[in-house]
Design goal:
The structure is a homotetramer. Chain A is mainly alpha-helical. In chain A, 74% of the residues lie in helices and 0% in strands. The radius of gyration of chain A is 19 Å and the shape is elongated. The N and C termini of chain A lie far apart (66 Å). Chains A and B meet through helix 5, helix 7, helix 8 and helix 9 of A and helix 5, helix 7, helix 8 and helix 9 of B. Chain D binds a DNA duplex through helix 3.
DNA sequence: AATGAATGAGGTTTCATTCAT
DNA sequence: GATGAATGAAACCTCATTCAT
């Protein structure tokens, strides 16, 4: 087994262990036992426990980053609505496809310590900035209500995170399509009809 | 200083320490140093580190539970919309009033370990159930769109959690009124106008 | 309650606690709880935990010391045999009368630490010396076999200790008379008839 | 050094430390210092302090168990008297050969706490039962006096324990042969000649 | 490269004792 | 004298990381 494969194998098992136990309760022993390697071997491939965890989280960030595509409003091949829906869909798909990683992202990586919090916040800030600028474009085109785009971005992110949190933590059994549809309809019209 | 005061004093300092460092990085020594007491004194008042953390979280749960009031649709003194707004306002107010606790709730308490996750999920499940049944009432009255109330509840909760997370983690400086107003408007109409 | 009474009360309860739990497992808290006093009060009457334990053991030594009377061979009012029997009887009686103290002596006080071991050994050495010299007198009178009186003393002491150990530790239900009679007959003739 | 050797080495040093200081005064640090290993290494081989102590005591029990052989009265190659003597001799030999363990057994392990007391009592009960049944056989053959065999067993055990206690605690310098001979003669005829 | 025994810093908790009230 | 909250030394144990084989 070559070095890259071995790394990948350890990463995969570590991901499962972290997802199952949480960062602190996951011991190096659990990881090497799951991977079927010796303790020393782990350290041949990863600097330390923190490093492998960061690598898992960074990988997740990257995967999500790739899932998001800027909505093309100039020469769209799909309608704007469909592009938004496709965006939501690809994000949801990535998250659902790897529940262990999603759980790590939405639960285990949260509140680890101030340094890790900064990393997480910085990722969400990137997402937020991207969403905000997209929403601003949308406002220019009249497809996003006038209003505080930062707030829109935050609430959108929150709604999405919470659905996925419930999916991975409680096993909420919603298929991708239903999640996407509900989110889109929520963003489009809310649900309160009180005036 | 009597026993209750002393407990309260330790709780307050512990809360700050947990909020500053996170659960694991917060050492008993940090807490007792902050409280200006000896290490043994801590254990006179609390079983162990976990216990004081749980007490902080439970206190937060309780405070939030009290903040939520069922919307009265039968003999309302306020319009339904105003009641919803008041509900949102009181929750937001409680969270903003004590950012340390809010940070603990939304960050430090998350992903601590499977046991704590269950506690957290169970709290959110309670909130969710309450919201769902309120939303069902609302549907009967025609003030909530037909649709999946569980999803509505989750997305609402997520939007709210994310705003507060940003407020306590990034120091997002939104006043209570603005948060309430934005949330209400989001729940009422979303922001996408793509059809 | 005057000082002496209070001391006595604490001693009595401490004795029970030590007998029940053993020296180390007996906490000052257990003692003061049993005595119905405050923790500080304990220290008004006793230097420390060790001191009260020593006092209990010293008291037991004293009680046993008083139980033993030198056999009078010159102007006996009782036969020598009867005097020996009376001696055994009074020792057994003292031990059986206060099982808690006996348990402390034969179990809890044993192997506490080198310093306490010395105390215990010194007590047994006193007993041993006394027995040895009595046995020597007996040899002079022809009522004790020729032989190693130190060994006789040790084996006699051991037989007696073990009976009492079984009585207090296992609740071996032998009445005083039976124990005395068995011991005397054992010392008189052993039980092996192999030649 | 392989795992078994290392365990053995730690056991040996721990035995000395326990024998020297007693269970409670013996710190893990003393043991690891004596063994010349790091603290963590200790815990690699033993669950905890209690576990290594129990292992030492259990080992002693086992060694003693092996030393005792049932007296063969049907087709004896040695006379019954000689068989008894050999039995006593092998027990005494085992105890004298390893004074540290004997001291632990007769002093440090005594009165440790109720749980350990039960372990000890259960061992002595086993020995007692064995002796009692042997004595009953002896009575049937007429080589043991009629009488209470349980009492005989207890007194025999006590005499033996006390001799060994004196040997290891006071350095009583009796050679094996002398101890055996004295014990045998004591069991055979006692020493009192008072009518 | 792989192993796994060894390391030791670091943290939690206990509990005998003190002392202000 | 009595109280009981406060103290802090001391001890155990864990586990990430190292390193000789």
């Amino acid at each position: 087994m070559d070095k890259t494969e071995r790394r990948q194998q350890i990463l995969t098992h570590a991901r499962n262990v972290f997802a199952k136990r949480g960062y602190h309760a996951a011991k190096i022993d659990d990881i090497v036992a799951a991977a079927g390697i010796a303790r020393g071997t782990f350290y041949l491939h990863f600097e330390d426990k923190r490093a492998i965890f960061e690598e898992i989280v960074d990988g997740a960030f990257e995967g999500l980053g790739k899932a998001v595509v800027r909505v093309n409003t100039e020469h769209p091949t799909l309608s704007v609505a469909d592009q938004i829906i496709e965006n939501i869909r690809s994000i949801v798909r990535v998250l659902i496809a790897d529940p262990a990683t999603t759980k790590i992202l939405l639960s285990d990586a949260v509140g680890l310590d101030p340094a890790f919090d900064r990393k997480l916040l910085s990722f969400y800030e990137g997402i937020g900035k991207f969403l905000e600028s997209s929403l601003e474009d949308g406002q220019a085109l009249g497809i996003v209500s006038p209003g505080d785009v930062r707030m829109f971005a935050i609430m959108t992110l929150g709604a999405m995170k919470e659905i996925m949190y419930q999916v991975v933590m409680r096993g909420l059994a919603y298929p991708e399509g239903r999640i996407v549809e509900q989110l889109f309809s929520f963003l489009s019209a809310g649900y309160l009809r009180v005036t």
